[in-house]
Amino acid sequence: xxxxxxxxxxxxxxxxxxxxxxxxxxxxxxxxxxxxxxxxxxxxxxxxxxxxxxxxxxxxxxxxxxxxxxxxxxxxxxxxxxxxxxxxxxxxxxxxxxxxxxxxxxxxxxxxx
Amino acid sequence: xxxxxxxxxxxxxxxxxxxxxxxxxxxxxxxxxxxxxxxxxxxxxxxxxxxxxxxxxxxxxxxxxxxxxxxxxxxxxxxxxxxxxxxxxxxxxxxxxxxxxxxxxxxxxxxxxx
Lengths: 113, 114
Fold this sequence. Notes:
The complex is a heterodimer of chains A (113) and B (114).
Chain A: E1 5-7, E2 10-13, E3 19-24, E4 31-37, E5 43-50, E6 53-57, E7 65-68, E8 75-79, E9 88-95, E10 103-104, E11 108-112
Parallel strand pairs in A: 2-11
Antiparallel strand pairs in A: 1-3, 3-8, 4-5, 4-9, 5-6, 7-8, 9-10, 9-11
Chain B: E1 4-5, E2 10-14, E3 19-25, E4 32-38, E5 45-51, E6 56-59, E7 62-67, E8 72-77, E9 86-93, E10 103-104, E11 108-113
Parallel strand pairs in B: 2-11
Antiparallel strand pairs in B: 1-3, 3-8, 4-5, 4-9, 6-7, 7-8, 9-10, 9-11
């Protein structure tokens, strides 16, 4: 069964450093998403991506964040200068259509020290 | 921002009985609702969805009911099994935006006792 994969499973970084979180969505899906879940809180939408551009982003997704689909299979989330409050589980998701169910990856746990 | 609420943080039921998980929403623009199950250290797994044009959708042991006038939906699991023990998230989207953005509730931890 096709699945969304994410690497790394756990990333530890120092405050102010750049991190890139990687995702491989399901191959025939066209819509891609990033969500995050801070420990003890709800899953929050960050950004949606379709046709090589951002279709919607949340208030959390400020200038420190960027997304890219560099090669037709990977979908990446970059945080330019990490803050302590960026520590969270980051989930990538993909869907066939924007109005369809989204399939989530296992997540990357980001720890900012 | 509490557009989607799951007011019960936890629920415990006996194996074989019915589990009922509840979710309320406030945004009238939501027209598509989903339930996800999540185990520790894994991503959310899609369970079942319902469009606002329906009031019920069934898939095996899982049934979702939607009451639009009350802005309420519920997930019924019958019969409950120990393997159903997980965190259940309700999520909603406004299809008109077509970006697929999901708004999640806080989750309900279900424990099914053998």
